[in-house]
Amino acid sequence: MAKNVQTLLHSTSPYADFDGKGMSYDPQGWGSDHPVFAQEIERLAPALIVEVGTWKGASALHMGKLVQRLGMDCEIVCVDSFLGSMEHWISQRGKSDLNLEFGHPQLYYQFLFNVLHDGLEDIITPFASTSTQAAKILAHYSIQCDLAYIDAGHEYPDVLTDIEHYWPLVREGGAMIGDDFSNNWPGVMRAAREFSDTNGLPLNIYDYKWVLRKD
């Protein structure tokens, strides 16, 4: 399988010599297997998916298994700082999920372990970066994806910035999926609606997922 972005970002495999001794499988996620993923993947037959906001990799693992089962030659690039979001740092439960060691979240290592556990290291490429910096780097390399999935910050300015930065990276005919379109996250709803209205794009809602298509 071609690993075009991985070879641009990493001189060697990020999974090489990873020692997950003592770790256990923990693909914690929310709505990570929603039918919209299969719907858009089957429609687009993507060669490249860019996920913005990965956490422990649950949605990427689901998409990886989908493309694997469908026999698609697809790379999934997972952009995340792996430092958690605001909601994780302001609650005790959220801090527990970060699995802090010496004050630093261990999310990246949990992500690597989960990917290796599911045997998807030839499909999933980690990109440990802020979403803004990652978008600039992908643009520098003229990377175009077939499908982008936005699920990082939940505050209005952060969501709008992610949409604005990653929409130009979606090829013509491609699509963008977003998460958390619900009253629990008004910033997400506002950002998705504003971008849709400003650009004259239909905003398709599937439960709490939203989809924009670049037709």
Structural class: alpha/beta
- Assembly state: single chain
Outline the biggest β-sheet. 7 strands, mixed
Overall strand count: 7
Query: For the CA atoms, what is the radius of gyration?
Result: 16 Å
Amount of helix: 25-40%
> How large a portion of the residues is in β-strands, by DSSP E?
15-25%
CATH topology: Rossmann fold
How many domains, in number, for the residues?
1
Describe the structure.
This is Methyltransferase. By secondary structure, this protein is an alpha/beta fold. It is built from 9 helices and 7 strands, in the order ααβαβαααβαβαβαββ. The chain has helices spanning 4-9, 35-44, 58-69, 86-89, 92-98, 107-117, 131-140, 156-166, 186-198; strands spanning 48-52, 75-80, 124-128, 145-150, 170-178, 204-206, 209-213. A 7-stranded mixed sheet has the order 3-2-1-4-5-7-6, sandwiched between helices. Strand 4, helix 8 (156-166) and strand 5 (170-178) form a beta-alpha-beta unit. The protein is globular and about 50 Å long. The two termini are 28 Å apart. The mean pLDDT is 92.
Q: What's the quick description here?
A:
With 215 residues, the chain is of the alpha/beta class. It contains nine helices and seven strands; from the N terminus they run H-H-E-H-E-H-H-H-E-H-E-H-E-H-E-E.
What is the fold's blueprint, element by element?
Blueprint: H1 4-9, H2 35-44, E1 48-52, H3 58-69, E2 75-80, H4 86-89, H5 92-98, H6 107-117, E3 124-128, H7 131-140, E4 145-150, H8 156-166, E5 170-178, H9 186-198, E6 204-206, E7 209-213
Parallel strand pairs: 1-2, 1-4, 2-3, 4-5
Antiparallel strand pairs: 5-7, 6-7
Helix pairs in contact: 7-8, 8-9
Organism: Streptomyces filipinensis
Pfam family, one: Methyltransf_24
Protein name: Methyltransferase
